[in-house]
Amino acid sequence: MGDRASVSIEGDTIIDAFRHNVRCIPDHAALRWHRDNAWLALTWSGYSRAVAEVAAGMAEIGVAPGDRVAILSGNRVEWHLADFGVLGSGAVTVPLYQTSSPEQVAYILGHAEARLCFVENHGQLAKVLEVQDQLPGLDRVIVFADSQQHDDPLLMGFAELRSVGARRLNREPDLFETRAGTIVPEQLATLVYTSGTTGPPKGAMISHANIMWTIRSAASIFDLREGERFLSFLPLSHIAERMISDFASAAIGGETWFARSLGTVGEDLRECRPTVFFAVPRIWEKLREAVLDKLDGSRALQRLIVDRYAALSGHFANRQALGKHAPLLMALPHKALDSTVGALIRHELGLDRAHILVSSAAPIHPDLLRWLSAIGLPVLEVYGQTEACGPTTANPPEDNRVGTVGRPIPGVRLRIAADDEILVQGGNVCSGYFHDPEGTAELIDSDGWMHSGDMGDLDGNGYLRITGRKKDLIITAAGQNVAPQDIESDLRNHDLLSEAVVIGDGRRYLTALLTLDVEALVKWARERGKVVEPAALVADPDLGDAIGRIVEEVNAKRSRVEHVRAFRVLDHEFAIASGEMTQTLKVKRNVVIEKYRDQVEEMYGAESQS
User: Fold this and answer.
1) Three-state secondary structure along 127-195?
2) 315 and 436 share a domain?
3) Which of 213, 238, 266 is the last residue of a domain?
4) Which of 222, 310, 364, 462 sits at 20 to 30 Å (Cα–Cα) from 506?
5) Average pLDDT of the residues in 368-375
């Protein structure tokens, strides 16, 4: 961490915090992006000027405080410029996932009553134009990757908007500061629509006060410092990425690097070397696979050394799981290898400078966390929801309890209801759902408790363990309750499997739909001299036996009612584009079960029901 000062978060709104850093560190880099084989930088003063131009441009074309303004784009510099331009105008940002279909775009823009929409390129523009007739309130669409002027009054390039704003600022130099200064903490900052595994998305109403309260609470746990470096690659339309690489970075004077794509994250990590790194479980799994693949390719002597380090790390992880300390004869060689081999692995991953590593958005298997910790990458599991502005609980760095999602962040109150649902109170909790009084009443009860929809229990030290989702709870034909989450997590933890959906509601026994990890499958096939063709391998009896052993191993840890009695392996992975997963890589259980109904019914045979 060097001599960087502990962070001081100034202001009552995220715009206040942004303007404070512009005044204090105008020449420091704020945003970095890759273009023409080089990383370019925008300083805080340049950031502020661009944001002011966006805000003034929107004022010139009629956007007023309180208006909703949507952003349909991948992560890029313009996303942040648009976001803070909207917020600095007193308007409300409505982010959309770039994978959204035209129908989803129409629903959210219509429901939010968006006046204006920023889009990344002409591909995203096409989605809006396809549903334009359903959006009579949409006045303008601003295209990021378009510098030309348009005859169509609906369309405007981002460069043109900034030019319009620059001319307005020449006439009214204090326009941005004046508008930004009128924003109050209770003012609505953003509508974040839940990706939702069931039903239409709901727009969580998050205020400036919610954002600032949450950042201050989280910063006190993780000891965030001035100049933290973040890599932005998960969707900014998701509250977790937005809170970290957009809002937190702006609040503490950090530096956000934009990954070129999901496919280049490994390379971008090595170039960025973030000091804070947030990822979903699937990314952490991929990083483990990358390390193991690298070890497989090592030369003989190197491999022996690395194998010794890996073995010792594994022993450390196992002892950690049992709450035991490693004996000195194990600890000393591990320490020596960790400072050489371990340091090299961390450097190769680009995580050698990271002092905060976080996993959230979906459950992560404890064995994976222990393995990462054993190679010097202690990942902290955080739990929360869109409606609570991101984090509700977090494992503190000084007392990380693997297998739990930590303790409530400072200021949050948490209790477990009679039906095991997790209830939350705190400054992070949103005020409800936009234009949805019934949904709001279901979310926040008359006593002010937010109902998370998750089930859990608290240990004696106040650490929370998630036991499942209320809506996912399986009730078998015999009336026995089974939470599928842990079973699915154990199945996914095996290299060959990427996803698992356990089924059994109203049935006599449990079954599972499984998908294969393509990279692990290719390796498995080559080691056995088999043709690398997923569609053919699915029917391979050797693969069936291998997966059968995985299922038996998972069953052995559970009571008989929790045993998976039959399974089917699909010849492809679930995907966002097919509607089987949310944009945060959570499986949409109901969609999957319905889509593969024939395979499900096969597993139940004569018991099959309509």
Assistant:
1) HHHHCHHHCCCCCEEEECCCCCCCCCCCEEEHHHHHHHHHHHHHHCCCHHHHHHHCCCCCCEEEEEECC
2) yes
3) 266
4) 364
5) 88
pLDDT in tens, 510-533: 999 999 988 888 888 888 888 888
Residues 427 and 513 occupy one common structural domain: no
Phi, psi angles (nearest 5°) of residue 463: -85, 140
More confident position, 246 or 309: 246
Closest CA to 124 of 153, 155, 87: 155
In terms of domains, do 35 and 155 share one? yes
Any domain includes 393 = yes
What letter would DSSP give residue 433? Answer: B
For residue 11, the one-letter residue type is G
Average pLDDT over residues 217-227: 90
- Determine, yes or no, domain membership for 434: yes
**pLDDT over 90 (residue 462):** yes
Question: Domain tally for the chain?
Answer: 3
CATH number reported for the structural domain that contains residue 361 in this entry:
3.40.50.12780
Q: Which pLDDT belongs to residue 609?
A: 44
How far is the C-alpha of 179 from the C-alpha of 44, rounded, in Å?
19
pTM for this prediction: 0.85
Chain centre to alpha carbon of residue 361: 5
388 found inside a domain: yes
